[in-house]
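Chain A, query sequence.
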Amino acid sequence: MLSGIHFLLTYTCNYECDHCFLCCSPRTNGTFTVSQIRDVLDEAKKLGTVRSVYFEGGEPFLYYPIMVEGLRLARDAGFEVGVVTNCYWATAVDDAALWLGPVLEAGIDNLSLSDDAFHHDHTNGEPPAARAAKAAMKLGMLTGSICIDRPTVDVGTDDKGQPVVGGGALLKGRAAETLVDGLPTRPRESFVECKHEELAAPSRVHVDAFGHVHVCQGVSIGNMWQTPLFKLVSGYEASAHPICGPLCLGGPAELARFHGVDLKGKFVDECHYCYMVRRALINRFPDVLAPRQVYGLEEE
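Chain A, predicted structure.
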């Protein structure tokens, strides 16, 4: 049952982090208009099951007036509302409070702050996320930290004797290119499940300004500007989807087998192999594996 909608308010970001699974940067395009936000919220209400709406990116604070208006519209529609931010704007505690005042007035329930070495230098004074957290506390706002470390080989192995890779970064998007060197690999046939997404019955989807409705970032179940979101979600059947169907049956290994993809090279985990198989299939399924920029590719 779909309970959450996450707006990718913009793919543009002032950072270009190694771990970004959306390949966001200052050069990536795609930002919602207020009118588009209204349309999505109207469709979300029709579903009757959606309880929460998040605004993320990219970096949503780069489009501050649109973000604040989107928060207000979502709150007025009766949804719980949250924002995910890298806190670049928190140059001082008092200044951060000025940024957060209108956000609070719009009716936010939760502010998630990226607070890790990918976003900030923690060895050189107080990081922006700490300043943002202090400002939020002064205003009485609920906050949470998102802290993702670089992939590391944890001590020990899994139940099949394979080394366990930890750290929190998902090895897809830019991370599949920048963070895999030196990590242990596993046989491709061992990747027989999707461990991170509820593909058979998603509890949340990400939507972007191009119209894509993602059940996993870069895996679209349709375009909401062509087919209303209500119809896409209510009519979704994983078994009929060219990517989700095989993944539900047998993970990335089945996705590769089903579509005849034989990749050379070695792969660290399920996300890594799945992402590379999907990237190999992108020209075969351009409407499903979209947008291309999430795969580090230019639009054609």
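The longest helix spans residues 244-258. The radius of gyration is 19 Å.
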